[in-house]
Amino acid sequence: MKKFRTLILLFIFTLTTVLCSCTDGKTKANDSITIGISQDIGDSLDPHEMVAAGTKEIFFNVFEGLVKPDSDGNIVPAVAESVSVSEDKTIYTFKLRNGIKFHNGNPVTIEDVEYSINKFAGRLGGEPVSSAFSNIAEVNVISDDSVEIKLTNADAAFLSYLASVEAAIIPKDNETPSEKAIGTGPYKYVSRTPLQNVIFERNDNYWGEKANIKNVTFKICTNADTIAMELEGGTIDMCIHLTNGQKKQLDTEKFEIYEGSMNLVQALYLNHEFEPFKDVYVRQAMNYVVDVNEIMDYVSEGAGSPIGTSIYPNFGKYFDEKLVDVYSYNEEKAKELMAKSAYPDGFEMTINVPSNYDQHMDTALVVKNQLAKIGINATINPVDWDSWLSDTYIGRNYDATVIGVDAANLSAEALLSRFTSDASNNFTNYSNADFDAAFEKASAASTDEEATAYFRECAEILNSDAANVYIQDLPDFVALNKRFTGYKFYPIYVLDLTNIKAVD
Predict the structure, then answer these.
(1) Are 417 and 462 in contact (CB under 8 A)?
(2) Would you say the C-alpha torsion 386, 168, 260, 480 has a positive or negative sign?
(3) DSSP bridge pairs for 402
């Protein structure tokens, strides 16, 4: 009897231990999430030096500017709790949020704010992170909690430029910002293992509403063929920017599939230093023979939004729908233009494509076949992301490339500034005096209406000049294990982790 009782007690103890262990495991699991991303960050950890859209996309959770965007596209306070703007739109005065701290526990001071503004504006040496910041004439500390930015010319869209990772406020005393990511956002950067993962941790001292999930691991998934398998197998809980094919492989009983748009401009970008692309007839012929609808059908069964220029539909007032159909597919027209060009018999070219993006690889395949109809023999050159970034984007050593270009902020300037002749990020080497003049007028406009009109003129020039072969804003599919909920799309290319939470 005593032995039986002992066995019963042992059974109860063991069962209790197992149940507690399971409960603790569940809590632990629900306090952590693993997110699959298609590329390593492979970039500086200094927000003022970040180049890759994918890096800025996730570090949106780590860094904040004086203001930031919300999911509805509004500009809301961040490091600054308030801003006042002079009537002539040339003086912006910001009041620092009381008690706000950096991730290292140090308070954010007005000196940190002054330093950061001068740094991203290129006033401490080097180039400004955006051409819009070359308009800053003075940065003046008004008091211990107020700073004033004076512009050379009025700019009604200036707050939009400040609402980006590129305009983040960082500590003045961080001597190695490219290696230590210290911001004020809802998540702290913890570590990075190259080609494996990037780890964030919730900032429990965040000034605003705290994030729900404590630990976030971004797992680098460069093999597109295994992503669905990793989701189904539980190696990752969430994956952004899935293809239509990957989405179809998932069990919808297990995953919530969010559908939106990527908020980028996918195009066959042309290096205007490559001799054939200096011929406008060649560029126009390419635009006429590339059938955007065929590409969209092949890549994502018709999902996506044709664009016609370097503005995507979610940019609302800047997007001109009439430009979408300017180069409706017309093979005969394309052949006529090639006959007028300096290359009537066509030519050889290479298309560099980052191999980790299935959508761009698939697009390049269709484009290659379409260009062959007018004698242009294209060779697809798949490259890894780091090589694409260093050789194609930064080195400009390419003929053409298929990629998607994002917007760092909510102004058309973010999408158009790279095509000004002297822009440091003008990776297409495009140069057009009329475009430069219209862009300069947009930047100097005193009203939003005036700026919008000039930005739309810039977009029209890119279209009429056939600067690139503009294709689409790709559809975006996000898979989230139903243990979690709360994902939200933004009108710009960012991933906000704060609303994601475990299902009770």
Answers:
(1) no
(2) positive
(3) 268
Phi, psi of 356, deg, nearest 5:
-80, -5
Average confidence (pLDDT) over 209-229? 93
Do β-strands 238-242 and 475-481 pair in parallel, antiparallel, or remain unpaired?
antiparallel
The letter for the amino acid at 92 is Y
User: Whose CA is closest to 313, among 466, 140, 188, 472?
Assistant: 472
Q: What is the 3-state secondary structure (H, E, C) of 8-27?
A: HHHHHHHHHHHHHHHHHHHH
The residue to which tokens 């040496």 are assigned: 125
pLDDT 10s digits, 156-213: 789 999 999 999 999 999 999 999 999 999 999 999 999 999 999 999 999 999 999 9
Q: Do residues 197 and 220 make contact, with C-beta atoms less than 8 angstroms apart?
A: yes
CA dihedral 468, 472, 478, 479 (to 10 degrees): -110
Place of tokens 């690139």: 468
Distances in Å between the Cα of 413 and the Cα atoms of 64, 130, 131, 456 are 20, 9, 8, 11
Tell which residue, 63, 75, 67, 84, has the closest CA to residue 142.
Answer: 84
- DSSP 8-state code for residue 391: I
- The enclosing H or E element of 401 equals strand 400-406
Which two structure tokens, joined as six digits, stand for 489? Answer: 């799309």
Cα distance between residue 23 and residue 15, in whole Å: 12
Burial of 99 (0-12, 13-18, 19+ CB in 10 A): exposed
Task: Label the pairing between strands 469-473 and 264-270.
Answer: antiparallel
Coil/strand/helix, residue 192: strand
Q: Quote the CA–CA distance of 439 and 428 in Å, as a whole number.
A: 17
Rg of the chain over Cα atoms, rounded to whole angstroms, equals 25
The reply to whether the predicted model has a pTM over 0.70 is: yes
Side-chain half-sphere CA neighbours of 118 within 13 A: 16
Structure tokens, 452: 């919008």
Percent of the chain whose pLDDT exceeds 70: 94
Which residues is 239 bridged to in the sheet?
36, 479
For residue 122, count other CB atoms closer than 10 A to its CB.
18
Report how far residue 216's alpha carbon sits from residue 234's, in angstroms, rounded to the nearest whole number: 15
- How far apart CA 201 and CA 188 sit, in angstroms, is 5
* DSSP line for 339-366: HHSS-TT-EEEEEEEETT-HHHHHHHHH
Residue 268, helix vs strand vs coil: strand
Q: Within 13 Å of residue 414, how many CA atoms lie on the same side as its CB?
A: 28
Distance CA 251, CA 231 (A): 10
pLDDT > 90 in the chain, percent: 81
